[in-house]
Amino acid sequence: MEHRDPAPQAAAAAGRPLDRRAELSEFLRSRRARLKPEDVGLPDFGRHRRVPGLRREELAQVAGVSVAYYTRLEQGNGRNVSAEVLDSIARALRLSDAEHAHLTHLAKPKSHKKKPAARQQQIRVALRQLLDTMDGVPAYVVGRRSEILAWNRMAAAVFGDWAELPAGERNWARLVFLRPDYRELFIDWEQKAIDIVCALRMDAGCHPDDPKLSALVGELSVKSEEFRRLWATHDVKEKSHGVKRLHHPLVGDLSLNFESFRLPDDSEQSLITYHAEPGSPTADSLRLLASWGTDAARAVPSAQSPTRPGAVGGH
What we know:
Layout: H1 6-13, H2 20-33, H3 56-63, H4 67-74, H5 83-92, H6 97-107, H7 125-133, E1 139-142, E2 148-151, H8 153-159, H9 172-178, H10 180-185, H11 189-206, H12 211-223, H13 225-231, E3 241-248, E4 252-263, E5 266-275, H14 281-292, H15 296-299
Antiparallel strand pairs: 1-2, 1-5, 3-4, 4-5
Helix pairs in contact: 1-12, 3-4, 3-5, 5-6, 6-11, 9-11, 12-13
């Protein structure tokens, strides 16, 4: 099969709504391709397969639906599909909870009350005040499209002074894929990049008509080969906790535990906090960054840009 460079198509489509039918089709194809007959309890007779993964008829058999029905769904026609059928297909494809939710959003989109998809995201005053009271704990709020909406002084000390950036650049996807300094900041840059793309995919499933999201995907597809590669996998997942390892330009290596809390009054926003193991070298480094405060920016070697990670400022 011939693979064409997706960059020109992405540039042409930037800003247009994502094609939900195409997204559904590609997602189902990609999930089917990762399975083998033995993965779902079917015999493998060793016949040559023109494409990787299960055949449509094999997947339909495991899911308990007709081949014609499943084929229509994989071609992007999710009209009138029942929740029970989607559950069966999700089980047959061995989907995770996040993937199952993504499939449901693509096949049976909810009719949202008319809120503009590209509306400006607002942060409650009390939430900003909470961030400011979290001394010694790097914390920020991230919203739709991986946009960084608010942060505290310690987050600026660890990740960089986002206040120095134009509002449109305060976006994790743009920072990670388009700025070399963030590639240096994350020791496991590839995993950070994967996490961002997976979150954007989830967002696209919920809001395929969001022109700002489409524009972001188009821009990154044109400017970053790595983004194009990861976007093409159609992977989706949610991470509520874990460990991030950073190489900070002032204090060296950091190992930070993170927790993600989805806000109960706005499920499109999450509060992300980071903390170090008590008594660890990272805990000492965080105290050092906190003691420097706004003077930390002056401690960055002069060769570095003031907007590199490690520069400190308020929000």
